[in-house]
Amino acid sequence: MDIVLAAAANAFTWQALLAIVIGTWAGIIIGGLPGLGSVVGLTIFLPFTFGMDVITSMALLIGVYCGSVYGGSITAILINTPGTPQAAATTFDGYPMTQQGKVGEALGWATFASFFGGVLSCVMLIVGAPQLAKFAVNFGSIEVFALVCLAMLCIVGVSQGSTLKGILCGMMGFLFSMVGSDPITGADRFTFGQYALSSGLTLIPVVVGAFALSEVFVRFSTRDDEAARIPEARLIFPGLRDIGRRMIELLRGSFIGGFIGALPGTGAAAAAFISYASAQKLSPRRKNLGKGEPDGIIASESSNNAVTGSSFIPTLALGIPGDVVTAMMMGAMVIHGITPGVRLMADQAQTVYSLFVVLIIVNVAMLILSKPSVGLFRYLFKLPQGFVMGGIVMFSFIGAVSVRGNPLDLVVAAITGLLAYVLRRGGYPLAPLVIGMVLGPELESSLRRGLLISRGDFTAFFTHSTIASVLFVLIALFIAGTLWSGFSQWRKDRAAGESPAA
Amino acid sequence: MTSTLFHPRVLTALALLLVGAGLSVTAWQGPSDAMLVPRFVLAIWCAAALVVLIGELIRRAPMPSAPRSPLPLLMAAVLIAAIATASLGFLIPVLPLVALTLWLFRVRQPLWIALGTLILGGGLWFLFHHVLLIRLPTLLTSGLI
Amino acid sequence: MTLLRASLAAATLVATTTSAVAADTLDIVVPFAAGGATDIVARSFEPIFSEQLGVTSVIRNIAGASATVGTAEVADNEGNPNIIGYEPAGALSIQPSLKDLPYGPESFTYVCRTVSNPMFLMVSKDSDIDSIDQLVEESQEYPFLYGSSGPGTLPHLAMAALTVKSDLQAQHVPYSGSGPAMNALDGNEIQVMADTETILENYDLKPLAVFAESRVEGYEDVPTFEELGMQDLEFSVWQGIVAPKGISQERADAFADACKATVESDRFETFADKSGVSIDYLGAEDFKAFVARRVEVNKQVLKDAGLTE
To answer: 3-state secondary structure string, C271-289?
Structure first.
């Protein structure tokens, strides 16, 4: 108990609290600006942490990280442009709600779901880190392959209107991720002899092009319409009764996010899509999903923020960073002489407990700072549309080029922007493109590693372990269910189409 | 029939099918271990594109009346600025792009255009490049601009 | 206190004024994303180095394609005295033999080697294997799988060389980094891995042998491969500074002096101690010869292991 109190005392110094407020606030703004995401935010703040003590610097970085994951939802809801890839699934229901004039409710649900997911994942981290870490070790390449296959199927769910076009875009995203070195043999693929292409395409420039730049183009071609107007941002928190009514959704999203976060190498964007797909199967209001249903926002936002806490599970329990962001956190710890690894919990218990306390404070700070942040965006979006669009173009450019300092990424963003405009005009859903790019690399490398491990025998995948078998059965059920509902829908459509003719 | 063929949706589907087919050729010529997954992905791509194309042909959506709009100008400006960054640095291509974006989005007063370009283009560039030290592409070797 | 506020304000102020005014900011290219293992060392190196050199400097993270994109950026700046690269071993000594790159070992002015950590061959702590002989023997009936942090990385090369030089039967399974590979080792998906002391310590593994000329301090009971009768198995993870070729001798000497003073400084030594990297300085000439030798050795390994023609 003493150690917990000492840890709390560490986290409640005013340096740490100030760092949390600055970090969270800046994180929300950076996340909200299209193009700039968690990685750029952390890169900006990493140099400042050199002169600070370890708790203060972790407080600053955790604040930036959690804030940016939440901040992405603000622009996703207001202008249909996710501020970060993690918030791509928030657009499905967030923007329709905005179009129906329910901006305040949409932002309120996004904020509350983010807070709820964040806090719940802290609890998961504190209570179950060793157990979850041990369970995550059972997820070898073959289990991860099965899990990612299952997640890939949510392309079908999020392709509103045309499943085939969705699949096409998903495959396009998958192919985007394949440009560059093959992760297994190192051979160059689809580079056509161009050295510049051998570094491959990364997610951020593609997301910037597909959402931010294409949104500028779409708004330009409809700039005289009422629809192009950006509504005034407000924040209306849901009432207690509404929260109670949707508690199951909040819990499901948070647990999915919390669990995905504990697996090394998946991340918040994947969690949001998986959670959204499960809401489509399980929510009592699933018929309205995609048409402005708060459950969709809850599914996306509770799960992507639940990743923030639980992504520390592999980092703290095993020393394995779950994603780029936690890898940067690990780097920051190393600077201060704390080497993450299997013995961290034992050797540095007080620091670890302080981190837990910091994580909870950050989530509370996020809830408090949401109001002024939304206020700032309201102010920004009140500017004449030209300035808003010019700003989006600038931030998109800066975000795309600063991810890894490669000017080629800017060209990728621009070309994706043009392509995405054409695709949107042709009725192709763009979210599958992001899903393909997020999940594709993991799907491919886990499959290829699985084949190496099973010595080339794919049938061995199904019986590799209980977890793998269960996941493959779920996949089979999902496909069968989708085919069946698609078939009956088709029959109904045909019956409806024939009757007036007859 | 020809009018259906030139429908933008049909053309999009056709282009996607052709690109998929072209990439399939590359995939089948490459090494079989590295190209294993790409071959599957491209097979699904081509199949989906083919069905989409047939669907668009059958549906025969009415030809949209294309209003004349300077959208291609904006698109070209974005693309040119992005390409020019590699050789001219970040600041120089971005300034005319921001000015053009402002103008196209109906900001027509010279003062506002100048101010907007200076703040959005120059200001943000200065903030990131010189204050936050997130280095953007440069023109001079000294890194000044 | 005021440390936080002061450092934030000071950093902003200093950065704004100096970098805007001074024309010769030194760009230090790190060919990885911010926060990675190499980046952390570079960021600790940078302030001391620029102080010694008397310039302002800024870290530029240019990541991608196994660190070759950032390295190519340095090589591409021929004659530019305001850019150097903080380079990992792979980009300088492996990738040029593996791929068609816009640079080669001769594209640089070598400044110095900063750190070098020998690699260990290791197995999981729960493993019943205690020696190389036992490992080789058990691999005969059912080949082992060894992990790496990606194709063409040092952990891959060291193991590939070992399979060529001994009777060890083992196959390569690459992961996206040392972390995921450790997860796989924990789940017994792979059985062996070659990596540095940092990994060994952090994940509590069992070392079997060390890829070095002589035994390593702190691991006196871990034999070298030479003692076990296997020649030329020396692999270490090192980092060094290179400048583009075509800069003046004067500038190159200034870089070299600043580098020497930096690695000998107390501040850098304290950092190295805390973060588990061992300082292993080589001057300009020695570093150049060292890289040339490593390129030759690695080329031969790649060829023997069938990774290149």
So the answer is: HHHHHCCCEEEECHHHHHH
pLDDT class for A370, splitting at 50, 70, 90?
very high
Smallest Cβ–Cβ distance between B101 and the set A393, A414, A443 belongs to A393
List residues bridging with A332 in a β-sheet.
Answer: none
Helices and strands in chain A, H and E counts = 23, 2
Q: How far apart are CA A82 and CA A95, in angstroms?
A: 10
Q: What is the distance in angstroms between the Cα of A58 and the nearest Cα belonging to chain C?
A: 13
The answer, yes or no, to whether residue A397 has pLDDT greater than 70, is yes
Domain residue extents for chain C: 24-117+236-304, 118-210
CA–CA separation, B52 vs B71, rounded Å? 27
CA distance A125 to chain C (A): 18
Query: Which chain B residue lies closest to C27 (C-alpha atoms)?
Result: B143
DSSP one-letter code for A209: I
Name the residue facing B51 among A164, A172, A440 (closest C-beta): A164
| The residue to which tokens 């795309």 are assigned | A400
Annotated domain spans of chain B: 2-59, 71-131
Residue A147 main-chain phi, psi, to 5 deg? -65, -45
The string of pLDDT tens digits covering residues A338-364 is 777 777 777 778 888 888 899 999 999
Q: How confident is the model at residue A478 (pLDDT cuts 50, 70, 90)?
A: confident
| Residues in A touching C308 (Cβ below 8 Å) | none
pLDDT at C19: 43
Which stretch of DSSP H or E encloses residue C146? strand C144-148
Alpha-carbon gap, residue C255 to A337, rounded angstroms = 28
Average pLDDT of chain C, as a whole number? 85
Q: Which residue of C has its CA nearest to A55?
A: C4
What is the pLDDT confidence band of residue A416, given thresholds at 50, 70 and 90? very high
> For the segment A253-289, what is each residue's pLDDT rounded down to a tens digit?
999 999 888 877 677 888 888 898 888 888 888 888 8
Q: Quote the CA–CA distance of A287 and A321 in Å, as a whole number.
A: 38
Q: If you classify domain C24-117+236-304 with CATH, what class do you get?
A: alpha beta
pLDDT in tens, A45-71: 888 887 788 889 889 999 999 999 999
Tell me the residues of chain B between 36 and 65 that have a Cβ less than 8 Å away from chain A: 36-38, 41-42, 44-45, 48-49, 51-52, 55
Q: What is the 3-state secondary structure (H, E, C) of A309-323?
A: HHCHHHHHHHCCCCC
What's the mean pLDDT in A96-100? 90
Chain-chain contact of C40 with A406 (C-beta, under 8 angstroms)? no
Closest CA to C133 of C192, C234, C208, C205: C208
Are C5 and A18 spatial neighbours (Cβ–Cβ below 8 Å)?
A: yes
Does the structure's ipTM exceed the value 0.90? yes
**The residue type at C193:** M
DSSP A250-315: HHHHHHHHHHHHHSTT--HHHHHHHHHHHHHHH-TTGGGTTSS-HHHHHHHHHHHHHHHHHTHHII
The pLDDT tens digits of the residues spanning C182-221 come to: 888 888 889 999 988 888 887 888 999 999 888 888 888 8
Closest CA to A399 of A24, A25, A30, A26: A30
Beta-carbon count within 10 A of A438 CB? 28
Between CA A435 and CA A276 the distance in angstroms is: 12
Q: Looking at domain C118-210, what is its CATH homologous superfamily?
A: Periplasmic binding protein-like II (3.40.190.10)
pLDDT at A220 (0 to 100): 87
Ranges of chain C with pLDDT below 50: 1-6, 8-22
End-to-end CA distance of chain B: 55
What is the dihedral angle through the alpha carbons of A101, A103, A106, A112, rounded to the nearest 10 degrees? Answer: -150
Among all chains, which residue has been given the structure tokens 């048409």?
A291
C258's CB contacts (< 8 A; 6+ apart) are C49, C52, C53
User: Largest Cα–Cα distance of chain A, in whole Å?
Assistant: 81
